[in-house]
Amino acid sequence: MLVFLLLGSWISGCATLSPGPRRENFAPLFIYSEDEEREGRAVDVLGPFFTYRKDTRESHLAFRPFFYWQGEGERYSRTEYLYPLGKYERTEREVKSYFMPLYSTSRDLTQEEKKERGFLLAFWGETDKGKPYGGFFPLYGHMKNRFGRDEINFFLWPVYMDSRVGESRAQSVFWPFLTFYEGGGREGFKFWPLAAHVKKENSYEKYYFLWPIFHHEKRYLYTDDPTEINMVFPLYVSMTSSRRTQRSVLWPLFTHVYDEEDHYDQWDFPWPILQFARGDDKEIRRLFPIYGRKYWEGRERGYFLWPVYWYVREEDDQHRKSTERFLLLSKDETEVWKKKGQEERRIRVWPFFYYREDKEGGLYFYWPCLIPLDYEGFERNWSPLFSLYEYRRTPRGDSESKFLWGIYVHRKNAVRDLYELSFLFTLYSAEDVFYFSFLKGLVEYRAQGTERALRLVYSPWPIQWQAPGATKEALAVYREERQVTP
To answer: Whole-model pTM above 0.85?
Structure first.
């Protein structure tokens, strides 16, 4: 009987004494709320499993963890399917879509001809000049401007493949074992791992035999400081130039590096366990895994009892970033934008809680934190399913606390304060309004200025009267005393 009374009370919302924007909390079954300021509304069904949000700026629709959609008119749209497997994203410049490993597609809206698509092992598209390409891996394919190459062709890969960068072409048979190079100043062959000789005019020349044992190479021939590499691995390795010398004996047991230009001197014995180095704006001290510190031109990283604790810090004139990690999955990260006077901080203590304060002043906290990944997609699609408590605060100071998927809610802004315990109890206060409800109208009371109203047993006819002794000034004093009292 109580269930029918509650549903009847909700359907006949006009009979309620509740002030402010309409809000109905029957958590964890559903929550409905309206936002007058942003002309929005929100619905949550079965806690976080189904969510709908809409206001004048954006819309959200979620059926977690299967589906999440966000739209901002014609400017932006994003849909995620079983994240991170599938995603569709549209901006003013491009459209991207994929569902791993079945298909992927992208299109550059600023260049109407350029588009790429793929389904399973098939792919096709057009370059920015409208030239088509496509194929079905590994049977046959022709690619344009992919994987750092101007052109790639393959047939029964890895039986045959050729690629081109500018005028330089490489042809492979049973890649990576046999490859021939020609054009663009480059020529040679590679018969891996037996032997190879490849050279490029004014750039490099290298030989190897029984790779990686015997190796000889000259690099940076276009500079005034070319480098020569000689190797009988792992017995002896040397890399020398007019400014820098690096030699290893029984690598990685013993290595010495000296750079004359930076006055840099490094000793490894063996790497990475014991390492010492010092130079201009550079320093390394490492006794792995007990202690390590590396400072390199404004960037510092180190550890203590790795992986118990390690950190990375970097700083320049515009920006400072510090990341500290504990036991791999927990971290404390701070970013500072100096000239803008903005700071952002993220703390994750896995599996206990997650805390984030963004640079605009917003704050987000939840526990437990079972997903140890800092990606917004996981935060949208998965984290709400496992969070027992959430707290959000906007840059303006509006806040909301939720416990057990909305069974307990506390919402507060500059003019309103709301407490809810699902459909059991509601307490609301504003500038000149005080309201409470028990069981959605079994007992309901509102005081607004000198007006009073009482509703009993879901009656559509509340009892109303004036309280001559109560004034707006008295209520204001009462509210001020409530705020001052600890």
So the answer is: no
